[in-house]
Design goal:
The protein has 214 residues and is an all-alpha fold. The protein contains nine helices and no strands.
Length: 214
């Protein structure tokens, strides 16, 4: 069953693109199709058609459907770990960095909600597919390391509590981020509601990690 997430229209399909741009285009199309139809609905031929290329050209960039899915997983990781808005004139503290993580997630939810649909699809498929389970573990390990570095930085700066169980905190944080994304998408929240939900979650997390002033 297709979801109410229609793949976004592509630019001029006959446009010539450099190899990195073409790969990104193909991965983005695949992500849109997975969000709308699930992994089972991802078809090599349809990806090629939407890109305006033939199957041979698609196979040149991605030799198999599995390799294309790996490209989607990498894009997911890049999107979830990208935190724009860092001040250019001074270092970012752990508190600022973590708040920017939530702001980035809120922006991503509003601009590309399909990211979180695909993330859920990936987790569900990993339960019955050993290959995808390995992919998911690699993805989670990278994300876990990224968040761990932020929390350890806060502890080093002494802006975060010194008794934090970093591993437990990161698992809870990842679960919360995934849960917010799932709730926002399935609940079809409006932009204002998404921002409120993300801001509340950020405040709760920061209060739980930050050193309380006497």
């Amino acid at each position: 069953m297709e979801r109410n997430l229609k793949p976004r229209p592509q630019n001029n399909p006959v446009q010539k693109l450099a190899a990195p741009d073409r790969r990104l285009q193909l991965v983005s199309i695949a992500m849109d199709l997975i969000a709308a139809k699930g992994f089972e609905g991802l078809r090599f031929q349809e990806v090629a058609q939407r890109a305006g290329i033939n199957n041979a050209t698609l196979s040149y960039h991605f030799s198999s459907k599995e390799e294309l899915i790996m490209g989607v997983v990498k894009l997911l990781g890049d999107q979830l770990q990208r935190t724009p808005g860092r001040p250019k004139d001074r270092p970012v503290s752990a508190l600022e960095e973590l708040r920017l993580e939530f702001e980035s997630m809120g922006n991503l939810l509003q601009k590309r909600p399909e990211t979180f649909v695909v993330l859920t699809e990936l987790s569900l498929r990993a339960m019955r597919d050993p290959v995808m389970e390995k992919v998911t573990k690699t993805f989670d390990a990278s994300w876990r390391q990224h968040l761990s570095e932020i929390i350890r930085l806060g502890m080093k700066e002494k802006s975060f509590r010194q008794d934090i169980d970093v591993d437990a905190a990161v698992v809870a944080l990842m679960a919360q981020i995934k849960g917010i994304g799932f709730h926002a998408v399935t609940g079809k929240l409006k932009p204002g509601q998404v921002k409120q939900l993300v801001d509340q979650a950020a405040d709760q997390v920061l209060r739980s990690l930050a050193i309380r002033e006497e």
